[in-house]
Amino acid sequence: MAPDSDRKYKRRVFCLSSSSSSEDNCDDDEFEEISGDDSNYSEEEEDSGEEEEESVCERVVSLLKEGNELEGLYLKHCKAYLRHYGLRLAGTKAVCIQRIKEHWRLKDGNGEELNPRSSFFINCRGDVCKGDVVMFVQKVYSKFNNVTRHGKILGSRTVAGRVVNESYGSAKQQHTFTVEVLWSKGVKKLPPLSPLLVKGRNLYKLRTFRQRWNNEAERQKILAEKHKRGTAARLARTMKKSTMAWSENGDAKCHKRALSQQTISNEKGG
């Protein structure tokens, strides 16, 4: 598989919503993004290093085809391959090499053979954490239109992937999962191992199933930690809103008092 020179996996935007037919509209915060880290791309790097990166990719592909080990590569070489295919760059050299090997195994679309539908049999609706391998069906929308405030439904897509990260937005404390795609079927299939951002509330309202962990007790620990972080994030948001409301209310009272004093002063002066 020769590397493609046009970074076709760099940026794609999709909308994730419920698979229920009753929800035909999607709002602006339902759009999900497929990409690597934005910080890994710049115009200068793209202009100056594209030829070198393509050469490095060809070298890595050659090693993979010949069945040779990749340990002799530098970390920057591994990241060049990952960046070229729009994959995640995070991790040590060993982690990146493992990701390259997995991508090579999945590139021909055999992800479902390695992770069959039958292996996803635990209903985890409302209960997803980092490390879960999940499968769900999502509606796919065209790009969100800021004028009409919705996107056109293109169809549905089944996605199976590994939850590799979770975070809470700093502004609205919205829970977001990063799902590394193992395989997908349906409208606009996703490239193997491409990162898909899914808002928690959207994932929870889908019919989501997961594989069983080798150690379910370990999962319970991770899940408890996630719930603890969520509680802390919600508390922080509540306190912030209360502080802002108190500050605004205090400013309003001060302004009213100043106007009152000014009125009295004007009356005396008159």
Automatic annotation (TrEMBL):
It comes from the Eukaryota. Signal peptide: none annotated. Residues 129-213 form the DUF7699 domain. InterPro entries: DUF7699, SAP_dom. The lineage of its organism: Eukaryota, Viridiplantae, Streptophyta, Embryophyta, Tracheophyta. Pfam families: DUF7699 (PF24766), SAP (PF02037). Residues 70-105 form the SAP domain. Residues 16-53 are annotated as: Disordered. It comes from Salix purpurea. Residues 24-53 have a biased composition (Acidic residues). This is SAP DOMAIN-CONTAINING PROTEIN.
